[in-house]
Amino acid sequence: xxxxxxxxxxxxxxxxxxxxxxxxxxxxxxxxxxxxxxxxxxxxxxxxxxxxxxxxxxxxxxxxxxxxxxxxxxxxxxxxxxxxxxxxxxxxxxxxxxxxxxxxxxxxxxxxxxxxxxxxxxxxxxxxxxxxxxxxxxxxxxxxxxxxxxxxxxxxxxxx
Length: 160
Known about the structure:
By secondary structure, this protein is mostly beta strands. It is built from 1 helix and 8 strands. The strands form 3 sheets. The protein has a 3-stranded antiparallel sheet, with no helix packed on it. A 3-stranded antiparallel sheet has the order 6-7-8, with no helix packed on it. The chain has a two-stranded antiparallel sheet with strand order 1-2.
């Protein structure tokens, strides 16, 4: 039982901090001495690298999918953290990554908010000289509303 506890402690040390040991394997996983919940061969440490004092800290990368466009990513050094939000236009989520306290990097282009060719008029709150309501004419171009011009349209402004 003591050997199992020592092996578990060694496993936790490997996963929680850099290892500075060149000694023999103290925890061989044989069919008679296995850690609870770990089968033989399941403890693969090939993905871990040994860092020596003075080595540069390892970098990690955070990636957000911007499908069907190119993904966005940023790199950070643990223990900093990152946030990745995939693009999901069905719920108007543009998608972005943010590493540490750095700026958010958004997917491009934005999710479309309209269908190309659509036109809409938005009142500006002003009245035209002829008494009609001043409105901005917007057209959907590449999925986004863009200003085209200002026009005077019915209804008439205010009571007469």
